[in-house]
Amino acid sequence: MEKERRSAVHREIGRRLKEHRDAMGRNQEFVAAILGVTQQQVANYECGKHRLSVIQIVLLSDAFGVGRGYFLDTVAHMIHAGSFSHPEQSSYSGDPAAAAERRRFDRAYKRLKAPEDRALGLDLLEFVVRRRKQMG
């Protein structure tokens, strides 16, 4: 059973890789160059036959301009359901809508170059959180 869950996790991460690669209009050779592997290896990642390492996920996140969680957000619930999850992982949100919102926030924040603009953005976010707590 655990092996089946692990395989499902690798397939989902591979699906996310292919989905984003396609959305960027890139081919498997582009990904292969980033990771220093062959195009066939990328095909194996995308179908879930082989697994990506954490380092490879970091490299892809940087190259694709997405947060580190892009490849993992949709599999958090699968990891948690398996015996290979960490007990503290239950507080992690695998909600795809929330993940998309976090990615939008991260992209917007990265575009803020001036320190005062970043500070203002964080102040606004903290204001909204405090306001929501006060409203109940």
What's the topology here?
Elements lengths: L1 H22 L4 H8 L3 H9 L6 H11 L11 H6 L14 H16 L3 H21 L1
Task: Describe the protein in words.
It is a single chain. The relative contact order is 0.11. The chain is built from seven helices and no strands. It has 136 residues and is an all-alpha fold. The protein folds into two domains: 1-93, 434 Repressor (Amino-terminal Domain) (Orthogonal Bundle), CATH 1.10.260.40; 95-136, no CATH class. The protein starts with a helix and ends with a helix. Helix content is 68%, strand content 0%.
Provide a compact summary of the structure.
With 136 residues, the protein is an all-alpha fold. It has seven helices and no strands.
Q: Keywords, please?
A:
136 residues; mainly alpha; 434 Repressor (Amino-terminal Domain); 2 domains; 68% helix
Secondary structure tally: strands: 0
Largest β-sheet summary? none
> What is the name of the CATH topology of the largest domain?
434 Repressor (Amino-terminal Domain)
Share of residues in strands: under 5%
N to C succession of SSEs? HHHHHHH
Kindly give the count of domains: 2
CATH class of the largest domain reads Mainly Alpha
Shape: flat
Radius of gyration in whole Å, from Cα? 18 Å
The percent range for helix content is: 55-70%
| Tally of contiguous helical segments | 7
